[in-house]
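#struct-help
A.M.: can someone run this one for me? Single chain, 253 residues.
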Amino acid sequence: MASKPANAEQPLPLFYKNLVPLSSQLHPSHGIKPREDLGFTKGTHAIPVTVDEFAVAQRNYPIVFGLGENPAPLALVGLQEGTNLYIGDDNQWEKGQYIPAFVRRYPFMLARLSPQSQDLSLCFDDSDPTISADAEQKLFDGAEATDTTKGILAFCEQFEQAVFRTRTFMDELAKLDLLMDGEVTIQREGLKEPAVYRGFRMVAEEKLQGLRGDQTRKLVQSGMMGLIYAHLFSLSLISPLFERQFAASTKTA
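D.P.: on it. Structure tokens below:
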């Protein structure tokens, strides 16, 4: 989820193909047009979410944690890699389902222009067709940012602040050693073998229940306990997601 330097030789975040700094000198006449679809999300089954989104995201998606040294919370929109079950044939997100902020901020993001820089600059993916010189909703008026650009910048700043809060949450989970490798087994009537899903992490309830009183109190007072239970409650949505996947596979068979 972390912002990557625009010129660093590192993999770009999910969805981004190329990042360039937005500039009135380089993009004086560029504008943005309304996005007609969310087809760019079609090839992913897990989308990063911040702790600010847990309360609403857990109503629609299972929230799990990624693997690796710096895992991020992920909303599962599918159970098979490369398949978003919430995108229809028309490339529209299913109505009534929450769209993660990570999706909504694209093609913009804040990033450091060099590894040494402490400042974040507003950048965009210049391969995205919604931004072009002939788009009517302009990003600059001369050297000044338009209200459109100011609104985009404010959204990206709020997102980065939420990312910081998410890192704090993840650091606390790691400090308390609450994460374990996840595994979900689903036995569906009519299937010979159960479906088993791995490759994610989740909070270990036994470890959570075994915390000292002062540790539990700290989690409650900080609001982290509510986030943990939002994650745990959301895991019940893996079975409906499997049914969604089963229905999709049956449809295309």
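A.M.: thanks! The longest helix spans residues 147-175.
D.P.: also worth noting: Residues 20-252 form one domain.
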